Amino acid sequence: MKITEEQVRYVAGLANLQLTDAEVKRFEADLDEILTHIEKLNEIDTAGVEPMAQVLYAAGETATLREDIPAPPLGNRDALANAPRAGAGYFKVPKVIERS
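^ thats the sequence. predicted structure below, dont judge the formating
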């Protein structure tokens, strides 16, 4: 599989990254290598492999980390009580991402 420079720049744009031409070339090679490896993995026959439900430890089908006990919601007023800035029922935060 061959990933193109245009695709690398597109993905970088989605991630709001500005890459140099050298970085684009490096990521083009790296991403192409990753996708080639994924293609090899997709060729493996997994028809007889049972899906894993819990990868951390052996547990029964209904295992949970804690009992799920319903509780009343916090409420908008209480949630915003300690907010540095709030308005119209929302947290107000400074803009941190700007596109050029």
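The chain has a mean pLDDT of 87.
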